[in-house]
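Q: Here's a chain of 220 amino acids. Please give me its 3D structure as tokens.
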Amino acid sequence: MNKWLTSTVDTYIKHFGASSKPLVYDVGSRDGRDGVELAERISNLDVKSWAYSDVILFECNPPQIELIERNYPQATLITEAISDKKGEVEFLQIHGDQNHVGSSTMNTKRNDKWIKETSTIKVKTRRLDDVIKELKHTKTEINIMKIDTEGYTAEVLRSLGKYLRNVRVFHLETEIEGYARAETNLDIALFMTENGYKCTSLEGEWLPNIQDQVWVRCDV
């Protein structure tokens, strides 16, 4: 069990109770584990009783795509990068152990001291509102959306368009001033507050530069 996800699970259960058919979006999934675990932990059924197709995993890094396909073949896998614009961008692959691989990013200028080996590929981008329409979730509530996109959380949130409030609980990785590529943790907090969400947890698995924020929709 990943303790990093506990505050998100607790927030969901407190406000909505357990779900008989959890729908979870994990944007920037890396290995798929977090999205699947979130769905398992908010479910009130044996995990064999519902389809992992209701876990939507987003990952554009080819080696990680292969890993997800091997470990979670029943999950729904989206292999484009999520952005507020549809198109094609360069993508920085960071090599090394699993933590390093998980930091692969559209930010090709990233030069943290610990980064030793990289390569660059091109990946396609798409908006989340288009994915929601494609999956026929326009009138469906998304139980939890986790966004961990290495500095692109704001773009992912904007790409939801009118479906932003379809999401009950968000788990957002954000970056602090001086480390953030663009919007900081404070910018993200302002955006979420203005759009009718309240923050239930501020944590930092990767402090001091990165802050994890958990948000719940204010109509509960």
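Q: Can you summarize the key feature?
A: Helices lie at 6-16, 33-42, 62-71, 98-101, 128-134, 153-159, 185-194.
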